[in-house]
Design a protein that fits this description.
The protein has helices spanning about 1-10, 35-40, 65-80, 115-130, 155-160, 165-175, 200, 210-215, 265-280, 315-345, 350-375, 385-415, 420-450, 455-485, and strands spanning about 20-25, 50-55, 105-110, 135-140, 145-150, 175-180, 190-195, 220, 230, 235-240, 245-250, 250-260, 285-290, 300-305, 310-315, 495-500, 505-510. With about 500 residues, it is α+β, with helices and mostly antiparallel strands. Strands 3, 4, 11, 12, 13, 14 and 15 form a 7-stranded antiparallel β-sheet that branches.
Amino acid sequence: TKKVTSCITNILTKEKYVKNMSIFYGQGIPLDYAGLVKGASMKRTENVAEISVNLTDKHTRKEPSFLMTQRLRPIIDKECGHIISGSTIKLVEQPSGPPTLASIVVEVQGDNIKQSRELSVEVANILSNTKGLVDIDVMADDIYDTYKLIPNIDKVARSGLAIKQINNILYLAFEGMVIATKNSENHSDQIPIFLILSDKTKRLSDSSQDAIRSKLTSLNLMNQRGMMVPLSEVVDIKKVKSEPMIMHKDLKRMINVIAETDMVSQVYPLLDAREKMIEHFSKNYTVEKAGFSTYMFDLYLTDKQTGEKFLLRWDGEMKVTLDTFRDLGAAFIAALVLIFFLLVIYYKSFSISGIILIGSFLSLIGVIVGHWVADLITEQTFFLTATSLIGFIALMGISSRNSLLLIDFAMSLMSEHGMEKKEAIAVSAATRAKPIMLTAVAIILGSALLASDPIFGGLGVALISGTVAAVFVSLLFVPVLMDNAKAVNGGQFEDTLIDQEHPNDISITR
């Protein structure tokens, strides 16, 4: 682990934008919110290490962090990936939004843990061959041969030793143990005193059973009769398979297969990998797709020979995205329904309410065009994000307000001043164009700062492009719809006209 870590740090030290680094052997970086989600607390073994890399200020460097990560990943894999066979190197950025375990997570759930491990390896191979996915890893411990030291109860009883005495010396020799505690006025808890043999003393000549027995022979305990008894005489050495950690979720056993996306949206490699999995697993399993829900990408597998059932559940950043789009989509529909009913109550007309909503829908086309333009003019891919959907909802109110100004003013001109319909619509559009434009300019200037933000960039672009589209729709399309709507006629009203030459003659017109 130290060799691989040193290789990586040698590459990173040559980067001009790297400010400093902190290396953590046998543990993860200090725990934070992202670390809690990504499982940093479980990294407590000698075969793991994490490097925390601090970059120079983003305003003083030309290369963004995600582009640097994309550039360094193949270099590090080429130089350091072959040092230790089977080693896994991941380049993980601090998330700009809610942290997840990985961009794409496949949960392999099933009661047969052995077959689940085999499935997880097959899933990892498919993800490795999917374009746009990097840093693939199976979050399961490898099963390897290990040796178990078991005190022989009969021999221990005849030797005059105690089981506890033998267990303590074994832990002391190979693992270390707390032998006492110290009290300090500067510390609220007792400070443990830990004793362990030096690395040179406890080091084995090799990983064979004979080497362990030789080490046990060098460890002697005094029995009740004052005789020294070597541990090799009272301890049996048994070769066993290691016991891997088994993870559970919702009371079900599972193995996570994780992958990160390389400058692409999660949905495209997900769909590609899912189709490959359906084709691959159909040979030995009956594959069933999930219904329409936020778990709609899940696959249910049934072994054709044994009938055992397994679930491939997609999670990670993609699941968070689906949940967010579902919730914001529901909020968008709720906003539409509420706006429509409020307009119907206010105007007592379905057609006028429909005109306003049609104008709002046409304005949303500008959001799509705006994201497309932003993707063309920016160096990196500009995605339609959850904050973009917030912009959709906000634009419904902005566009509806513009249409309300035109319709109310036009109907006021027809009812109060007796103008013809076409003339009233033209005057209202010309009169209200200035306040509509001023409102649009204020929104555009206020949203300009958001457009470059990594999280709220979608909201900024949505508000800017949608507002521009709303101006054109309000001043061009809405007047046309008003002219063709019979409901826009000034309403059922009575207007009293007084003849200036004959003030005593009053005529009532409808």
